[in-house]
Amino acid sequence: MSRYLGPRIRLMRAVGMNLPGLSRKTIERKPFPPGMREGQFKKKKSEYGVQLMEKQKLRFNYGLTERYFRRLMAEAFKSREHSGNKLLELLERRLDNVVFRAGLAPTIAAARQLVNHKHVLIDGKKINIPSYTVDPGQVISLTPKGYKNPTVVYAMENPSLARPAWLSYDESSQSVKMITVPDRESFPFAIDIHLVIEYYARRVSR
């Protein structure tokens, strides 16, 4: 499956919640699924449908393909840590997400574009791989041109989310340092990770 390029708010309406990494817009005006009018009868979801919905929340928020998401899930299953917590950690440590959570971009998609255009630095070196896994101790900053980008200026003045405790911001250099790995408590939206694990465990066992 290729990356989704349609209306982002449609995806948020499909899963029934706002996804901060996907869009700054909200579903407040139309909090019901696409193609359905307010007050219209909603069919009760099956167990599979509920699991699928939780999985889609993660995929849509981070803008990932199903193939890539399965790779992350396989890595999480191999870990000695709790599979769900490990999956969330791997998602949050992606470079495009770290740039977003640092307040340097309004969405993960915008952060991904900064990375692709070589405006993001890790310990002073340009990295243009959005899926790069950031390690504790590494410092994330932008090129001089990147800091002048109108999207970056707006994001820094109007952050989408509060900066998480696992990131430390240096105002003098406008850089961010990862001081520890992300934890589940700092996750930016409600997710039942157990349902995501169950969704993929069912497929692994087949």
Helices and strands, with pairings:
Blueprint: H1 8-15, H2 47-62, H3 66-78, H4 83-92, H5 95-101, H6 108-116, E1 120-122, E2 125-126, E3 139-142, H7 144-148, H8 150-157, E4 167-170, E5 175-178, H9 193-204
Antiparallel strand pairs: 1-2, 1-3, 3-5, 4-5
Which properties best describe this structure?
206 residues, alpha+beta, Ribosomal Protein S4 Delta 41, Chain A, domain 1, Structural Genomics Hypothetical 15.5 Kd Protein In mrcA-pckA Intergenic Region, Chain A, 2 domains, five-stranded antiparallel β-sheet, 9 helices, 5 strands, 43% helix, globular
Rounded to the nearest angstrom, the distance between the terminal CA atoms is: 22 Å
The domain tally reads: 2
* H-E order: HHHHHHEEEHHEEH
How many β strands by DSSP?
5
Q: How much of the polypeptide forms β-strand, as a percent range?
A: 5-15%
Rg result: 18 Å
Strand order of the largest sheet: 2-1-3-5-4
- The CATH superfamily title of the largest domain: Ribosomal protein S4/S9, N-terminal domain
Provide the structure class.
alpha+beta
> Shape from CA axes?
globular
Q: At the third CATH level, what is the topology name of the largest domain?
A: Ribosomal Protein S4 Delta 41, Chain A, domain 1
Biggest β-sheet description = 5 strands, antiparallel
Number of helices: 9
> Please, what is the average pLDDT?
91
CATH class of the largest domain: Mainly Alpha
The CATH architecture of the largest domain can be given as Orthogonal Bundle
Give the helix level as a range of percent.
Answer: 40-55%
| Poorly predicted ranges | none
